[in-house]
Amino acid sequence: MRKTHVKIMSTVIIWDLLLILQIEFTRSAILKASKVMTNPTMLKIHLFFAIGSVILYILMVLSGRKLLSGDISVRPRHKKLGWTTLIFRIMTLVTSYWAVAK
């Protein structure tokens, strides 16, 4: 079960980071976001969740590696980070629509 979890989550994280890069390189999302001020408050909220998601991914990988090396004391933290990361990713998706709504 653990190996399956690691493979699935590694794939999901890599896929999501590649999606972020693809959006930036094909749509210049950061440049457009800095110019579009349709809803600046919602854009700031969106950026909070988007940047937070990437930071949480890093923390998830670090705590996951500790867990895999046998440090089971990190399990509760890893689980909390996982749920928090999921919430942040969902909120990133939701706020991406609100940030550009007219």
Automatic annotation (TrEMBL):
<keyword id="KW-1133">Transmembrane helix</keyword>
<protein>
    <submittedName>
        <fullName>Membrane protein</fullName>
    </submittedName>
</protein>
<keyword id="KW-0472">Membrane</keyword>
<keyword id="KW-0812">Transmembrane</keyword>
<feature type="transmembrane region" description="Helical">
    <location>
        <begin position="81"/>
        <end position="100"/>
    </location>
</feature>
<feature type="transmembrane region" description="Helical">
    <location>
        <begin position="42"/>
        <end position="60"/>
    </location>
</feature>
